[in-house]
From TrEMBL, chain A:
The lineage of its organism: Eukaryota, Metazoa, Spiralia, Lophotrochozoa, Mollusca. Gene3D superfamilies: BRCT domain. Residues 261-288 form a coiled coil. Pfam families: BRCT_2, Pescadillo_N. This is Pescadillo homolog. It comes from Magallana gigas (Pacific oyster). Required for maturation of ribosomal RNAs and formation of the large ribosomal subunit.
TrEMBL record, chain B:
This is Ribosome biogenesis protein NOP53. The keyword Nucleus applies. It comes from the Eukaryota. Residues 97-106, 286-302 have a biased composition (Basic residues). Belongs to the NOP53 family. Keywords: Nucleus, Ribosome biogenesis. Residues 57-78, 97-132, 169-200, 246-318 are annotated as: Disordered.
Length: 455, 427
């Protein structure tokens, strides 16, 4: 009639957690494979509340995973692909060492491949979930797109990441979703609003970038593998939401003649280069519709008849519309010393036209001598101001205009002038906080007050 | 019979082989062999003329100095050995050519079939076969030979299609366990305004002060360590050793001490042991309490109890006059509870923002990226990026409890390396 003696560590936390080595033994994988699987599936280690209980009395630091998570991992079909890959490597090595070229070729052609579609679907059951996780994804993909050849990562991942980021930038340009930009010493931060979700991502500076040794590139490669798949699907959905072809097709691709730089490129490379130039518009799915009729984010039907709120919403909508056409009608020309891709992206997102010297990169639409250019972006202290019909400004002018949603006076941005400070648009001042005088002046200008009106 | 008839020597019987065997005929044989040899090699010498056999030498032989002895020429060993000369082809003998079977396709087809093929008319079957061959070739060329596993997204993943008819024999799909996000921190943290490439003065000073605080903390730690080290240095090594020895040998009984204990015996309680053993003084009959004493004590206790109760009753009865202060007390207690609840709630909320210890190594905050005022250039062209985005991303993963901090596994040798010089290699 008496119950069996209850022993310690048989119930509760001790049975809910599993150490990493136990998990590896259960799944029968190597450590590297287990790590890859966890990263791909989004299974993270957990810290138990009472380590002593979980570890059966000892306090050695271990990595713990939840037993339910590991049991869930065991059902993943990709594990078989990992094992197949291990066997593939073994057979290939054997063929190479025996100098059997036919076998080697044959085995290489039948390399086992796997797809991550079902994992993406399972981790993000709805599109909004995926958008919520897009910050990390974008930052990683942009970062990987800048890696040079010969880095510790396979070239195909780098190329794929670059391709996807270019596609995403094209989408942002077409949907006019960019809102804020900030240049920091670490990189350039962008903020955009896509389908009601605010996305923030970092892009590294173009030059002077080092690739450190103490980073585990294999781990990053696994992350990128997953994120590129995710970004591919997201791009597909975003492109279809604004009626564009995916994979993107340039509108005037066949019409533009082949440049001298492009002569030695293959069809694919030429197309990719033109696409990454971000200077041409994309072809839409339905002819005659086009990207001009992009709808603004529709505000949900305001149930409350609160006039204040409706007013606010209207004002917001007006602001955004004004922002989206900030550079409309302006023609820019970029000098060589200026970060080309970032500026092209920003200028085109706000409706402007931009070009550069054709020896810098493929895709320049008009030369420097074009008379209708209104602004030329230079960064050198002394320029031979050849043309009187255009303004010469430093690149910070573009960024500051975007952050202030209006065209700023250009006197303080002329080449050789000391620039005003580049303020962060992510700071939202609460009442009573200190506001720097420049920012106050800008806010006043926005609100329509006179300058020098004081705090 | 005739005795003593002189026996005659047995005569050679020339017609019997047996007889001849007994005779020694080697000299005759030799002479005949010689004759035959002469005949073979140039004719019978007896029949030759004198002039053929002999010559008269009338001149004196020439001296040796006229013809110098030719030097021995080192004849080059012929590469081709003479013994193999018969294996070499004789140039005078021509090759006997044999007709080889020709590789050209022989005309195996019958003439009427040849005509058909040449005319160009094809049967249905043949036409079909050609089409199918083309299709298969196209398919093979189109086969996805992508080198890697990179595939372009070609369909809408989040398409809400009607579910396909469920296969009753299929394994039920395993549901993903619902988990909270590992951290509530944002994936990309917006930088401090002072980290701009051309920062505002105030923001920059704020950032500098933050960096200053971090450095100050580090300095404090270092100072503490230095102080401790100095204290240690002051101690004399001899005294240090003595104190160490005495501390380490606590509880260990020396040989002499053990002997003493044996001598004293088991009954006697030593002075040392007194503080370990709790000894009560022996009980004496005189100090026993009597019954009256005990009763008195009981009464006293009861009285005290009643008094205490009476007091309590009084206070309870008068509590009604204490309403205000009671209310104040209750309010205070409620406020206290609420404050504690608030603290607990805040702690609970901040749990989402905490970095957990997921592995052996502790999470180290990344260094604050800041450009010293001397390094601040106002121009984007001259900007040298500070900090590394790769490291930043990794730290972000660690901070958000997605990965545990990792260290590269050190390669170490289990056994020390030994160098041995070979005996043959004499220095």
């Amino acid at each position: 009639m008496g119950r069996e003696r209850r022993k310690k560590y048989e119930k509760g936390e001790a049975t809910a957690f599993m150490s990493r080595n136990q998990a590896i033994n259960k799944l029968q994988l190597t450590l590297a494979d287990f790590r890859r699987l966890c990263i791909l599936k989004g299974i993270y280690p957990h810290e138990p509340k009472h380590k002593k209980r979980v570890n059966k009395g000892s306090t050695v630091h271990k990595t713990y995973y939840l037993v339910k998570d590991i049991n869930f991992l065991a059902h993943e079909p990709i594990i078989n692909k990992f094992r197949e890959f291990k066997h593939f490597v073994r057979r290939l090595k054997k063929a190479i060492n025996k100098r059997n070229k036919d076998a080697e070729q044959r085995i290489r052609n039948n390399k086992p491949k796997y797809k991550l579609d079902h994992i993406v679907r399972e981790r993000y059951p709805s599109f909004q979930d995926a958008l919520g996780d897009l910050d990390d994804c974008l930052s990683m993909c942009f970062l990987f797109g800048t890696m040079p050849q010969g880095a510790r990562v396979h070239m195909e991942y780098i190329n794929h990441a670059r391709k996807l980021t270019v596609e995403f930038m094209h989408y942002i340009i077409a949907s006019k979703s960019l809102r804020k930009v900030f240049i920091s010493i670490k990189g350039i931060y962008f903020q955009a609003e896509v389908m009601g979700q605010q996305l923030t991502w970092v892009v590294p500076h173009g030059l002077g970038y080092q690739h450190p040794d103490d980073v585990d590139y294999r781990v990053m490669q696994t992350f990128v593998e997953f994120y590129t798949t995710l970004l591919g699907f997201i791009n597909f959905k975003l492109y279809h939401s604004i009626n564009l072809h995916y994979p993107p097709k340039l509108e005037l691709d066949a019409a533009t003649p082949v440049d001298e730089n492009e002569e030695n490129m293959t069809e694919k490379e030429r197309y990719q280069e033109r696409l990454s130039a971000l200077s041409q518009t994309l072809r839409s799915l339905d002819e005659g519709g086009g990207e001009e009729e992009v709808q603004l984010d529709e505000f949900p039907a305001v149930e409350t008849d609160d006039p204040d709120r409706v007013e606010k919403a209207k004002v917001e909508a007006e602001k955004i519309k004004k922002l989206q056409n900030l550079f409309k009608g302006l023609k820019f020309f970029l000098n060589r010393e200026v970060p080309r891709e970032t500026l092209v992206f920003i200028i085109r997102s706000f409706g402007g036209d931009v070009s550069w010297h054709k020896s810098v990169a493929v895709g320049a639409t008009y030369p420097e001598s074009d008379e209708s250019i209104t602004h030329q972006i230079v960064d050198r202290p002394q320029t031979k101001n050849q043309y009187l019909s255009r303004y010469y400004v430093q690149p910070q002018w573009v960024f500051d205009c975007v952050n202030n949603t209006s065209l700023l006076p250009m006197e303080s941005y002329f080449p050789g002038a000391t620039l005003p400070p580049h303020l962060s648009p992510f700071v939202e001042e609460a009442e009573g906080d200190y506001v720097p005088p420049e920012r106050q002046a800008l806010i006043n200008r926005q609100l329509g007050l006179q300058e020098d009106s004081g705090v | 019979m005739e005795a003593n008839v002189p026996r005659k020597k047995s005569r050679l019987a020339k017609n019997k082989k047996k007889a001849w065997r007994k005779v020694d005929i080697t000299d005759v044989e030799e002479f005949l062999e010689d004759e035959r040899l002469q005949e073979r090699t140039g004719g019978l010498v007896a029949e030759k003329l004198d002039a053929e056999l002999f010559t008269l030498e009338r001149k004196a032989p020439a001296t040796a100095t006229e013809d110098p002895v030719p030097k021995k020429k080192r004849r080059k060993e012929p590469k081709v050995l003479k013994c193999y000369s018969h294996l070499m082809p004789d140039p005078k003998i021509k090759l006997a050519r044999k007709p080889q079977p020709s590789r050209k396709v022989k005309d195996k087809q019958a003439p009427h079939i040849k005509e058909k093929v040449l005319s160009g008319v094809k049967t249905q079957k043949e036409l079909k076969a050609e089409d199918q061959r083309k299709l298969v070739q196209e398919k093979r060329l189109k086969k996805d030979r992508t080198k890697g596993s990179i595939v372009v997204a070609s369909y809408n993943l989040w398409d809400d299609e009607p579910k396909k008819p469920v296969d009753p024999f299929a394994k039920p799909l395993v549901k993903r366990p619902k988990r909270k996000a590992p951290s509530d921190l944002p994936a990309v943290q917006v930088p401090h305004p002072g980290a701009s490439y051309n920062p505002d003065y105030e923001d920059y000073q704020e950032l500098l002060s933050k960096a200053h605080e971090v450095e100050e903390k580090k300095l404090l730690e270092e100072k503490k360590l230095q102080k401790f080290e100095e204290e240690i240095k002051k101690v004399d090594p001899k005294t240090l050793e003595r104190t160490w020895l005495s501390e380490m040998s606590e509880g260990i009984k020396d040989k002499e001490e053990l002997k003493e204990e044996e001598e004293d015996g088991d009954d006697a309680i030593n002075a040392e042991d007194l503080d370990r053993i709790s000894v009560n003084p022996p009980v004496r009959r005189e100090s026993k309490k009597t019954r009256t004493q005990r009763n008195k004590e009981k009464k006293k206790k009861m009285q005290e109890k009643l008094k205490a109760q009476g007091k309590m009753d009084k206070t309870k009865a008068n509590e009604i006059f204490r309403l205000k202060s009671m209310k104040a007390e209750l309010d205070e207690r409620e406020a206290d509870l609420q404050r504690k609840a608030q603290e607990r709630r805040q702690k609970w909320q901040s749990q989402g923002l905490q970095t957990r210890k997921l592995g052996r190594l502790k999470f180290e905050e990344p260094l604050l990226e800041i450009k010293l005022s001397g390094e601040l250039e106002g121009s984007l062209r001259k900007l040298k990026p500070e900090g590394n985005l790769f490291v930043d991303r990794m730290k972000s993963f660690e901070k958000r409890n997605i990965m545990e901090p990792r260290q590269e596994a050190k390669k170490y040798r289990k056994y020390k390396r030994k160098t041995v010089i070979k005996r043959s290699h004499k220095v």
